[in-house]
């Protein structure tokens, strides 16, 4: 293949930089499996990698028995996150910068390498803490709001492991359902071999899907020496995601077809993604994860109470993406208020603290009490009411008629004084 590549490159007038290339030759039948075979490209020798030696491929250390966690790349990303935090950007701009510049970097690194769990969780935690700080939430607030999409009122920052698991599963599925029969057959044979290694006998189609679904039942649970491959990665990703959204791989016997079953949360409906809709898998899995976070937050008796409503319409969350029509003071208040994390006496659940209102002495100082029924704030209610009323009046087109505010209805005896009357 290298000779063919050399011929083609010579013909096209391209030169490979052999100093920047590396070769890795593994012979599985020998004890020292890494061979130091000399390969050549366009007549130049390529450096052979030894066991444990790594080649930096798109930011990811690649090699045989190499720790793949790209520590330096992750460190750089975290340093950039700290710089965004220290910058003078508005909080919604910080979230935007994180989502635009850093998250794609992390996702890219995660797609290319097997990052260990511990450093990944650490990154996740640091990002989470920063986003909560930018949303002006206390650190004890629910993590879900960080992961939920903007249009539902969240920061739209993915949890680090999710894009990686989804990428591995979609990649495996795309190979197995590839329109090109040669690619599809190579993939199917490789999966067949990986399954055979696990159960120690020739597997049926059903067995390969059981293997991909990461079942540990019976013969699938027996510990056998397994070399990491795309298939074992897909199986691991299925286990991690499957625990949360309970999706699985399925083999349809009648149609002789592979599919992925993704259940809908809180309903008996299932989506089965098969060959004919192979492009839909990534979107379906992402949607299932999003709705998992949404449902988890909605089910929280305290923090999820308002979220059920505020997540319903895009218009309630228009300001999350760009901070439009929003003062910093509004931003600092709204996320706390929605999750009921405003530091009020009535919002503290633990301990035996005095819950009385510090203004009027009412027995329970809740957010509802302060906003809607605490008498010393009555002037503020009136101003709030008038501000909304004036906004509406301003929005009424003059051609619709004459607008009257807070007056009796002209031409009637009624004592009522509606807020806004338009007379055509
Ligand atoms: Zn009060």
Report on this model:
The protein has 424 residues and is mainly α. Among the domains are: 2-51, no CATH class; 164-289, no CATH class; 314-391, no CATH class; 393-423, no CATH class. The chain has 15 helices and twelve strands. The protein has helices at residues 2-12, 71-86, 91-112, 117-134, 144-147, 161-176, 181-199, 205-212, 230-245, 281-298, 307-310, 319-322, 328-338, 367-373, 378-395, and strands at residues 22-23, 25-26, 34-35, 39-41, 44-48, 55-57, 60-62, 248-252, 257-263, 270-274, 402-405, 420-423. The strands form five sheets. A three-stranded mixed sheet has the order 1-5-4. Strand 8 (248-252) and strand 9 (257-263) form a beta hairpin. Helix 2 packs parallel to helix 4. It is elongated and about 100 Å long. The mean pLDDT is 88. Bound molecules: zinc ion (ZN). Zinc ion binds next to loops.
**Shape descriptor:** elongated
- Tell me the structural class: mainly alpha
What's the overall average pLDDT, rounded?
88
How much beta, percentage-wise? 5-15%
Main β-sheet, in a few words? 3 strands, mixed
Strand order of the largest sheet: 1-5-4
Order of helices and strands: HEEEEEEEHHHHHHHHEEEHHHHHHEE
Low-confidence stretches: none
Number-wise, the strands total 12
Report the radius of gyration as a whole number of Å: 30 Å
């Amino acid at each position: 293949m290298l000779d063919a590549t050399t011929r083609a490159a010579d013909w096209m007038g391209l030169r490979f930089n052999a100093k920047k290339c590396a070769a890795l030759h593994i012979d599985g039948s020998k004890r020292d499996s890494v061979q130091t075979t000399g390969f050549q490209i366009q007549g130049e020798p390529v450096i052979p990698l030894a066991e444990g030696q790594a080649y930096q491929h798109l930011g990811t250390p690649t090699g045989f028995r190499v720790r793949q966690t790209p520590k330096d790349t992750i460190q750089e990303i975290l340093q950039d996150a700290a710089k965004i935090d220290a910058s003078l950007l508005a909080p919604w701009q910080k979230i935007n910068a994180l989502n635009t510049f850093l998250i794609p970097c992390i996702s890219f690194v995660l797609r290319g390498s097997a990052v260990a769990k511990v450093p990944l969780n650490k990154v996740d935690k640091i990002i989470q803490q920063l986003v909560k700080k930018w949303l002006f939430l206390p650190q004890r607030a629910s993590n879900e709001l960080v992961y939920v999409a903007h249009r539902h009122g969240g920061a739209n920052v993915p949890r680090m492991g999710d894009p990686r698991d989804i990428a591995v599963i979609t990649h495996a599925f795309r190979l197995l359902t590839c329109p090109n029969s040669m690619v599809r057959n190579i993939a199917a044979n490789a999966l067949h071999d990986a399954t055979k290694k696990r159960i120690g006998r020739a597997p049926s189609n059903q067995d390969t899907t059981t293997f991909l679904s990461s079942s540990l039942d019976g013969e699938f649970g027996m510990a056998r020496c397994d070399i990491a491959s795309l298939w074992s990665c897909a199986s691991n990703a299925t286990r991690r995601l499957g625990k949360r959204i309970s999706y699985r791989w399925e083999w349809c016997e009648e149609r002789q077809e592979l599919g992925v079953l993704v259940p809908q949360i809180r309903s008996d409906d299932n989506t089965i993604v098969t060959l004919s809709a192979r492009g839909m898998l990534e979107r379906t899995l992402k949607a299932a994860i999003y709705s998992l976070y949404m449902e988890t937050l909605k089910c929280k008796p305290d923090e999820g109470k308002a979220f059920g409503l505020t997540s319903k319409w895009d218009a309630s969350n228009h300001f999350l993406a760009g901070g439009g029509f929003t003062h910093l003071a509004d931003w600092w208040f709204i996320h706390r208020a929605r999750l009921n994390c405003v530091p009020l006496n009535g919002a503290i659940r633990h301990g035996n603290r005095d819950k009385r209102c510090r203004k009027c002495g009412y027995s329970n100082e809740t957010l509802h009490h302060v906003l809607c029924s605490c008498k010393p704030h009555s002037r503020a209610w009136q101003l709030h009411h008038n501000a909304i009323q004036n906004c509406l009046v301003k929005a009424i087109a003059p051609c619709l008629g004459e607008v009257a505010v807070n007056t009796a209805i002209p031409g009637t005896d009624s004592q009522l004084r509606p807020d806004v009357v338009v007379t055509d």
